[in-house]
Amino acid sequence: MSPTITKSHEYYQDQVNLSPGTAIEPSASAIAQGFAQGPNPIPLPKAFQPLTIRGSTIKNRIWVSPMCTYSSEDGFATDFHLAHYSQYAMHGAGLIVVEASGVLPEGRITPNCLGIWKDEHIGNLSRIVNHAHKYGAVMGIQLGHSGRKGSTIPMHLYGTRTTFHSAESEGGWPNNVYGPSPIAYDDQHYTPREMTIADINAAQQAFADAAVRADQAGFDVIELHSAHGYLLFEFLSPLSNQRTDKYGGSFDNRVRFLVETIRKVRQVWPQEKPLFVRISATDWVEGGWTGEDTVALAKIMSVEGVDLIDCSTAGNDPRQNIPAAPGFQVPFATAVKKQVPGILTGTVGVITKPSQVNEITEEGKADAVFVAREFLRNPSFVLSAAHELGVYVKWANQYERGQLKTKHSYA
């Protein structure tokens, strides 16, 4: 008789002896929470345990990090985006976060970046979301504003130019680059104009309006991009924010722009849908934003309705000294998780092996792992992880015949 499976999750099935092509959706859901074989059943690896946040249940903890693709015109998602994000859904990613999408035209990083500043963008984004949902993926979108790092060139053009400037003739907006203070990121970027209070109010409203469009497009999760030296983070760091009004100076003043934006977004974003914030947990520059600042801000964000802090680092000052190594940003997520009760954390950065993902989640260093470049190298990373960790997962029916047998079964 085949061992039975504990139905601890709606995606699980009653029997293990599955024939090829058995219709179980969604793909890459772990098919077990309990093989009770013997007195000491092996628990399902944490990387493949589902995570419920508000009204969304994410089938595993291996998530696609938002990554710019520079493949849009006038902010519109294209067939490339449909194919790009669908491959991750079909190959089992639990959560897919669509790349930074400008909440205003000048909020894009480059003229080729995705946008969500007008209602016309909704249709193409909705097409992506609907297709990914068929394979059980939870879909998120990162809402961003480039601030002083805007009107630049796509990454694939780096090295071909003496500066990162994107001129007006190339679709750039050199006269509409702004930030908290008139301080350029470096001599390859435009010097921004200092934002007025009216500018601040308009940018905050743009984030809220973009959240409404994200909901209309069917997204399950929003992530606010307050990292890597873009607008929301520029206000946080004393290296880029040297204002003397209520949005500059003290810690409380510098976090005000982000906190007010969170409030406006949370007011229009459905209560059953999760809200994430990606943050650069440190500038890696003396006198800049620190890990301690991140913990203090996380305590505020938790009260304001943020569900998960996605911890990255750097990107705000060229003097940064980044100690890049596998998992080098994990301690920041762990610090937030330990010191801020009730908040979830994610981590990202040089995480390329399934064993890393599982170690991070098993040991409670973070609740989930955002994987970036490894997904570009291997869109089937989740399925590879399942095989390496010995977990039986359901593949999409169309790919079922290619599935490799697992090493062993987990409880």
TrEMBL record:
Domain of life per record: Eukaryota
Protein's name according to its UniProt entry: Uncharacterized protein
Species of provenance: Coemansia linderi
